[in-house]
Amino acid sequence: MLLKPHSRVQVFEGAEDNLPDRDALRAALAIRQLAEGLTADDLLLVLISGGGSALLPAPIPPVTLEEKQTLTKLLAARGATIQELNTIRKALSQLKGGGLAQAAYPAQVVSLILSDVVGDPMEVIASGPTVASVHNVQDCLHILNRYGLRAALPRSVKTVLARADSDPRGPHTCGHVLNVIIGSNALALAEARRQAEALGYRAVVLSAAMQGRGPPAIHRADGHQCHGCPPPVPAAAVMA
Questions:
Q1: Burial of 219 by CB count in 10 Å (0-12 exposed, 13-18 middle, 19+ buried)?
Q2: What are phi and psi of 51, to 5 degrees?
Q3: Percent of the chain clearing pLDDT 90 (strictly above)
Q4: CA dihedral 88, 92, 96, 97 (to 10 degrees)
Q5: What beta strand segments (E) does 78-137 contain?
Q6: d(Cα 46, Cα 28) in Å, to the nearest integer?
Q7: CB atoms within 10 A of CB 227
Q8: Where are the alpha helices (DSSP H) in the chain?
Q9: Which one of 20, 120, 218, 234 is CB 3.0 to 4.6 Å from 57, fit for a cystine?
Q10: Which residues pair with 239 in a beta bridge?
Q11: What are the residues whose beta carbons fall under 8 Å from the beta carbon of 63, sequence distance 6 or more?
């Protein structure tokens, strides 16, 4: 981004290859400092999108960025879902799981969210920096047990989880936040359907919940037809 001289806008780049790094950590700490300096007369406007988890790393001490990276990679390699990964990330983060909203209190917070997660759970998208976490330490331990990683946890991670269990960050400070989904698969599909209908098609939204790899949409439409529910012809099969 090319900024004008003396611009008040600051741009931080980081999280190369969608992995948290030192540049992203520096940006996250600067954002936390800005949020903590706000007052009840201020409004914090936040734009959140997929990739936000890697762009906003701020591990709770004594957990280091490297330890958190290693744990995340181990979970991903063993097949953990994005929901499971983000549950662990939130438990170890100063800013995720509503942490950014808490840092900004008592300022009002408006968060505009671009969803990259099926179903648009706001607490999962970018690990929910402005959404109070609905998970607890037992949820984290269950995930770590499932993938055989609990026994191998660094002492720092055990310390943070134990501290959170005895003094959890409550959701009561998120009443000053308005979270709004402004972009998602569902919204994109609805618009695609409207555009197709404007061109004279009878559009059918086959699914807004596809995950992973699957056959092309036309094959999905054929399968739909073979099970006794033929789409109208001419038809536009729309899916995401």
A1: exposed
A2: 95, -10
A3: 62
A4: 60
A5: 108-114
A6: 13
A7: 8
A8: 22-36, 52-55, 65-77, 82-91, 99-104, 137-146, 155-166, 185-198, 217-226
A9: 20
A10: 207
A11: 92, 154, 156, 157, 160
User: Does residue 106 have a cis peptide bond before it, meaning omega lies within 30 degrees of 0?
Assistant: yes
- Quick one: 16-183 is in which CATH superfamily? Glycerate kinase, MOFRL-like N-terminal domain (3.40.50.10180)
Sequence-distant (6+) residues with CB within 8 A of 165 are 136, 137
Alpha helices in 92-154 (DSSP H): 99-104, 137-146
Phi, psi torsion values for 238, nearest 5 degrees: -115, 130
Q: What are phi and psi of 133, to 5 degrees?
A: -70, 140
Whether residue 234 is preceded by a cis peptide bond, meaning omega within 30 degrees of 0, is yes
Please give the mean pLDDT across all residues of the chain. 85
What pLDDT digit, counting tens, does each position of 26-69 carry? Answer: 999 999 999 999 999 999 999 999 889 889 999 999 999 999 98
* Length of the chain as a residue count: 240
Q: Return the domain boundaries, the chain.
A: 16-183, 187-239
Handedness of CA 234, 209, 16, 113 (dihedral sign): positive
At 215, is the pLDDT very low, low, confident or very high (cuts 50, 70, 90)?
low
Give, in order, the Cα–Cα distances in Å from 179 to each of 25, 64, 71, 94, 123.
Answer: 24, 30, 29, 19, 10
Tens digits of residue pLDDT in 130-174: 999 888 899 999 999 999 999 989 999 999 999 886 654 444 457
